[in-house]
Amino acid sequence: MKRRKSWGFFLAVGVLVALLAVSHALQDHSRAIKKVPTSHKIIALTFDDGPHPFTTRELLAVLSAKNARATFFLLGENAVKYPDLLADIAAGGQEIASHGYRHQFPNKQPREELYADLAQFETVVAAVGARPNLFRPPGGGYNDLLVADLAVRGYATILWSIDPRDWERRSSAQIANTIVRQAKPGGIVLLHEGECAANTPAAVAAVIDRLRAEGYEFVTVGELLQYYEVRQ
Ligand SMILES: [Zn+2]
Fold this sequence. Notes:
9 helices; single chain; alpha/beta
């Protein structure tokens, strides 16, 4: 009798653990993603706020020379201002993702305004054949309801696990050292475009070389999400 009870207990616990694991995997896109649990040595570089004449071409040259892929969280209004750079990002095979049309904090915006902003962004990047399904909220501002609403509209909310604060005009060596030190499988690196991120392209070149020597591969965030592993 006692034994049967304990078997029932273990069975119930086992079923619960399995259900939690499944629901965790399914809920993947209804939560903000800071990193992807994986045992593969892969990492995603991301660039916010572009395209920008100060950094985009340099970044693309580095990525192309090193045969690496990355994700560009663009601003719609900058893509309109610099259509050639937008076209270059697409032609370079890099991933185009949304940082909104304007740089507004979505958790402080009425939903209809946010949806109009997202739609405006989609129209702009459709010109180069991009159909974004990743969104990074400006300022990292989000809440669970916002993330869930974005998921309904087909967007995964992407944050980051490594922030080298490149916009603070740190040297390329400082930026690279922070990234290399904090690198882990499934990591997402937050970097920027623009005048304040002038040292970012050089840092990226160094990071790719150093982490490749450790066995890392550089993928887009979209690719990184394919490696999501459920751990028990
Ligand atoms: Zn931004």
